[in-house]
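Sample entry was shown:
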Amino acid sequence: MKKVQLDIDKLDLAASRLRAIAHPLRIAIIDLLTRTKSMTVTEIYEKLEIEQAAASHHLNILKTKGLLESKREGKLIHYSLKYDQLVQVIDCINRCSVK
């Protein structure tokens, strides 16, 4: 059996990012943001037909885990994907997928 070298910090980061996207609303938010450059929380909750508080909660989780970035313009906050981080998660999933 091949001995595996574990980097606990990397494992913890990967697990937290996977947990962050493991929710139907967060997957829907990521899907929306793959089709547009950025969106405000209002645009997101209206498009998904959910409460503003729920959208904000899920956006915060994705941002905290490093998958989204935000940019304030006046009173509005625009959210966009951190593609490099998302690509890393998707690559990890693809490598781990059963064929």
Observations:
- The longest helix spans residues 8-21.
- Residues 8-96 form a domain with the Arc Repressor Mutant, subunit A fold (CATH 1.10.10.10).
